[in-house]
């Protein structure tokens, strides 16, 4: 269930009303936990910690990031969904636990539609398609031909079976008339470590994590997501230009959520603080350096994004006949 600002699910109304006077007037009175399904040092972790630095003086209490990677983001999502709805536990999640997992797993320990309250979308991470430095290709077209001639020989780093990069692997394999092996890792830093070591042939995740490898000559960047080419890499085409604009991991958004019954005043305050930070010109400059695009706004707009992408992924799963576990 996705809510308009100011509304609470009927089933949780009594609890929310009881909590509002106690929490709404003095909140926050203690530190706030923020669950994140990525390890420390990942791009989203860096952005979140920077945002917290900006907000903490206004909130008067620290926001403590708890990194809980792995399991297609199920671990962090479950912890957030079942936390007390008192405003002291929130989470920053992407599309995998909210719109992908419900189509792929029949026994999730949370209900993506009922257990969360969307607070605001935060930003898009621009995805990069990287290959290891030794790969004898310099474009997506050359990679497609190279993979087609070697079915089952190339691999791609993923966050586990049926994660967005893993589903992108299936689509690329079909488009290129080949098969690509998925290698699961806990997070982005580990995937890029594998790429630097030559263990992974292809990476299709947030571009920022690979910038250091590009400078060191340990990777090649073949394409990026987004509506236009990056100013720092004007020669690198967009995924849309290469015919891969519809990849599931082509545009990865992250957003702020809380347990479904989090009181209205707290949800509105969180929205206000995060929107203020992410719209600050200096912070927007920082986001640009991280190869990300800010995308904050009303809670309902974020809820609409979740609904729209849930439908889109459902069509993708049906089209490629991906079995539900």
Protein architecture, described:
The chain has 325 residues and is of the alpha/beta class. 39% of the residues lie in helices and 20% in strands. The chain folds into 2 domains: 10-125 and 251-319, Bordetella uptake gene, domain 1 (D-Maltodextrin-Binding Protein, domain 2, 3-Layer(aba) Sandwich); 127-224, Periplasmic binding protein-like II (D-Maltodextrin-Binding Protein, domain 2, 3-Layer(aba) Sandwich), CATH 3.40.190. The strands form 2 sheets. Strands 1, 2, 3, 4, 7, 8, 9 and 10 form an 8-stranded mixed beta sheet that branches. β5 (155-158), α6 (164-175) and β6 (181-184) form a beta-alpha-beta unit. Residues 1-24 have low confidence and may be disordered.
Task: For this entry, give a set of tags.
8-stranded mixed sheet; 325 residues; two-stranded parallel ribbon; 39% helix; D-Maltodextrin-Binding Protein, domain 2; alpha/beta
CATH topology of the largest domain: D-Maltodextrin-Binding Protein, domain 2
How is the biggest beta sheet arranged?
Answer: 8 strands, mixed
Hey, roughly how much beta strand do the residues contain?
15-25%
Poorly predicted parts = 1-24
Tally the beta strands.
10
Regarding CATH, which class of the largest domain?
Alpha Beta
Portion of residues within helices? 25-40%
The general outline is globular
CATH homology-level superfamily of the largest domain: Bordetella uptake gene, domain 1
State the end-to-end distance: 23 Å
The class by helix and strand makeup works out as: alpha/beta
Radius of gyration: 20 Å
CATH architecture grouping of the largest domain: 3-Layer(aba) Sandwich
The total number of structural domains is 2
What is the number of helices? 11
Mean pLDDT: 89
> Would you list the SSEs in sequence order as H and E?
HEHEHEHEHEHEHEHEEHHEH
């Amino acid at each position: 269930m996705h809510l308009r600002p100011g509304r609470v699910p009927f089933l949780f109304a009594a609890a929310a009303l009881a909590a509002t006077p106690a929490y709404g007037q003095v909140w926050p009175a203690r530190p706030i936990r923020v669950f994140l399904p990525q390890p420390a040092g990942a791009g989203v972790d860096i952005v979140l910690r920077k945002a917290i630095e900006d907000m903490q003086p206004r909130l008067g209490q620290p926001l403590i990031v708890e990194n809980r990677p792995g399991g297609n983001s199920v671990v962090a999502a479950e912890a957030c969904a079942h936390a007390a709805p008192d405003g002291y536990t929130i989470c920053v999640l992407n599309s995998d636990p909210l719109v992908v997992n419900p189509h792929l797993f029949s026994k999730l320990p949370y209900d993506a539609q009922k257990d969360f309250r969307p607070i605001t979308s935060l930003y898009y991470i621009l995805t990069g398609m990287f290959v290891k430095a030794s790969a004898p290709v310099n474009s997506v077209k050359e990679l497609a031909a190279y993979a087609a001639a070697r079915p089952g020989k190339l691999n791609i780093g993923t966050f586990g079976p049926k994660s967005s990069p893993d589903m992108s692997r299936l689509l690329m394999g079909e488009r290129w008339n080949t098969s690509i092996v998925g290698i699961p890792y806990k997070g982005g830093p580990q995937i890029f470590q594998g790429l630097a070591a030559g263990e992974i042939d292809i990476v299709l995740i947030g571009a920022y994590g690979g910038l250091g490898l590009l400078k060191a000559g340990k990777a090649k960047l073949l394409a990026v997501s987004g509506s236009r080419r990056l100013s720092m890499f004007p020669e690198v085409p967009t995924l849309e230009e290469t015919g891969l604009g519809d990849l599931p991991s082509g545009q990865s958004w992250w957003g702020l959520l809380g347990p479904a019954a989090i009181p209205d005043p707290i949800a509105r305050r969180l929205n206000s603080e995060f929107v203020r930070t992410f719209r600050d010109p200096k912070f927007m400059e920082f986001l640009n350096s991280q190869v990300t695009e800010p995308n904050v706004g009303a809670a309902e707009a974020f809820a609409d994004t979740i609904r729209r992408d849930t439908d889109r992924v459902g069509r993708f799963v049906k089209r490629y006949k991906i079995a539900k576990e």
